[in-house]
Amino acid sequence: MGMSVTISAAAGNDAEQILKLQYLCYQGEAELYGDYSIEPLTQSLDDLRAELGSGCVLVARLGEEVVGSVRGTVDGEGTAVITGLIVHPRMRRHGLGGRLLAAIEERLAGEWSAKRYRLTTGQRSEVSLRLYRNRGYERTGTERISRALTLVVLEKEAVPAPAFVASA
């Protein structure tokens, strides 16, 4: 019998596993754009620990192993910025990225009162772009990072949680 993947809030002691997974997952992006100095590959453990303490961070676990993660913060206007969606290469193509994205959206809307979601991905990152489009995100702009890398900005409105209606 196989183990199932569970999604939960990250704990402080998950930082090292998340950072190692992030480094592994962003190798393909760095190769795609010919830039190994991208922030996910240069982030320090201390910086990641600070993120764990200041925003919403979820992890996907297979047993004790962190096999996926995603992060989000919400600004004063209710815009949730979602970053760092990663899935271990051996776990890809099984819907885990979509599950993580849905879980962070639900958490940010419910506990953090998000009204809309915003995320970015590289213009050549077709798998990510397809996932986001399939989840209702629409392109709202671009941000040029370097000659080789332009980020696509995508957004969607948060769907409010259904109000509880008592029946008579």
Automatic annotation (TrEMBL):
InterPro entries: Acyl_CoA_acyltransferase, Bact_Acetyltransf, GNAT_dom
SUPFAM superfamilies: Acyl-CoA N-acyltransferases (Nat)
Annotated N-acetyltransferase domain residues: 5-159
This protein's UniProt keywords: Acyltransferase, Transferase
GO terms, molecular function: acyltransferase activity, transferring groups other than amino-acyl groups
Record carries keyword Transcription regulation: no
Alphabetized PANTHER family for the sequence: AMINOALKYLPHOSPHONATE N-ACETYLTRANSFERASE-RELATED, AMINOALKYLPHOSPHONATE N-ACETYLTRANSFERASE-RELATED-RELATED
Name of the protein: N-acetyltransferase
Species: Streptomyces cinnamoneus (Streptoverticillium cinnamoneum)
